Each structure stands twice: as C-alpha cells, then as structure tokens.
Amino acid sequence: METAYNILLGIAVLIAVVFIGIVFLTGKGDAMSGGGGSVRTTFKGKASFDDQMFRYTAILGGTFMFLMLVLDVLAGQVFK
C-alpha cells in the first residue's frame, strides 16, 4: 500500500510541475484587467492554441485534484 502511495505521489508531483509550466507559458500578463472580454472563434472546427491550452489546463487541474483526494484516502490507511 505504501508503494502505491509513493507512485501516486510521484505522478502528482509530475502533473503539478507540468501544470505550473503550462500556466506560466500561457500567462498573458493581464491578471488585473477584469478579463473575460475575449471572443474565441474556430475556423472549420479547428481549435486555437488558447482553446487547446485551456483544455489541457482543465484536464491537468482535475487530474491533480483527483490524485490529491486519492492520496488523502491512502495516507489515512497507510500512516495510521
């Protein structure tokens, strides 16, 4: 059980590093601008770079949160 915990912890750290890298690379520097005014359009169904990065960020964030919940449950069982 401790081995599974360590493996999942390593995966979670890797996902966190990739997540941080994507956020820093795609940051636009307009955090205080009020945002939300941009319109995204696609041509013939092809997603833009921003749309793809949004999708990857959402998937990585959801995966990271799920892994943290699983690690919390495993930590309760392993480290009693």
**Count of domain modules:** 1
Q: How far is the N terminus from the C terminus?
A: 12 Å
pLDDT < 50 stretches? none
Query: Main sheet, how many strands, which sense, barrel?
Result: none
Strand content: under 5%
Written as H for each helix and E for each strand, in order along the chain, the element string is HH
* Count of DSSP-assigned helices: 2
Radius of gyration: 17 Å
> Which structural class do the helices and strands define?
mainly alpha
Query: How would you state the average pLDDT, rounded?
Result: 82
Query: How helix-rich are the residues, as a percent range?
Result: 55-70%
What's the count of strands?
0
Shape field: elongated
